[in-house]
Amino acid sequence: xxxxxxxxYVHSYAAExxxxxxxxxxxxxxxxxxxQKDNFYAVQFHPEKSGDVGSKLxxxxxxx
Length: 64
Known about the structure:
Layout: E1 21-27, E2 29-37, E3 40-43, H1 51-62
Antiparallel strand pairs: 1-2, 2-3
Protein backbone atom coordinates (compact mmCIF):
# COMPACT_ATOMS: atom_id res chain seq x y z
CA UNK A 1 0.00 0.00 0.00
CA UNK A 2 1.50 3.29 -1.10
CA UNK A 3 2.17 6.17 1.28
CA UNK A 4 -0.11 8.34 -0.82
CA UNK A 5 -3.18 6.05 -0.59
CA UNK A 6 -6.26 7.29 1.27
CA UNK A 7 -8.49 5.42 3.71
CA UNK A 8 -11.92 6.17 5.18
CA TYR A 9 -12.29 7.62 8.68
CA VAL A 10 -15.85 7.96 9.98
CA HIS A 11 -15.44 9.42 13.46
CA SER A 12 -13.36 11.89 15.42
CA TYR A 13 -11.58 9.46 17.76
CA ALA A 14 -7.79 9.41 17.48
CA ALA A 15 -5.16 7.23 19.10
CA GLU A 16 -2.06 9.16 20.13
CA UNK A 17 1.34 8.37 18.62
CA UNK A 18 3.07 5.76 20.79
CA UNK A 19 5.69 3.01 20.67
CA UNK A 20 3.18 0.65 19.01
CA UNK A 21 2.34 3.06 16.15
CA UNK A 22 3.23 1.50 12.78
CA UNK A 23 1.43 4.06 10.59
CA UNK A 24 0.37 7.61 11.22
CA UNK A 25 -1.82 10.17 9.53
CA UNK A 26 -2.40 13.88 9.74
CA UNK A 27 -5.85 15.40 9.78
CA UNK A 28 -6.05 18.45 12.00
CA UNK A 29 -3.30 16.76 14.06
CA UNK A 30 -0.96 13.78 13.76
CA UNK A 31 -2.28 10.50 15.21
CA UNK A 32 -1.87 6.73 14.94
CA UNK A 33 -3.52 5.19 11.89
CA UNK A 34 -2.33 1.64 12.70
CA UNK A 35 -0.80 0.00 15.75
CA GLN A 36 0.94 -3.32 16.35
CA LYS A 37 2.06 -5.14 19.48
CA ASP A 38 3.34 -8.70 19.21
CA ASN A 39 0.86 -10.47 16.91
CA PHE A 40 -1.99 -7.97 17.46
CA TYR A 41 -2.76 -5.32 14.84
CA ALA A 42 -5.31 -2.50 14.94
CA VAL A 43 -6.33 0.27 12.57
CA GLN A 44 -8.07 3.54 13.35
CA PHE A 45 -9.89 3.69 9.99
CA HIS A 46 -12.48 1.52 8.23
CA PRO A 47 -10.70 -0.73 5.72
CA GLU A 48 -13.98 -2.23 4.43
CA LYS A 49 -15.13 1.24 3.31
CA SER A 50 -11.79 2.23 1.82
CA GLY A 51 -12.33 0.59 -1.58
CA ASP A 52 -9.36 -1.08 -3.25
CA VAL A 53 -6.96 0.12 -0.54
CA GLY A 54 -9.13 -1.42 2.19
CA SER A 55 -9.47 -4.67 0.28
CA LYS A 56 -5.69 -4.87 -0.15
CA LEU A 57 -5.14 -4.09 3.54
CA UNK A 58 -7.53 -6.86 4.63
CA UNK A 59 -5.81 -9.29 2.26
CA UNK A 60 -2.44 -8.29 3.70
CA UNK A 61 -3.75 -8.95 7.25
CA UNK A 62 -4.97 -12.41 6.22
CA UNK A 63 -1.57 -13.21 4.73
CA UNK A 64 0.44 -12.33 7.86
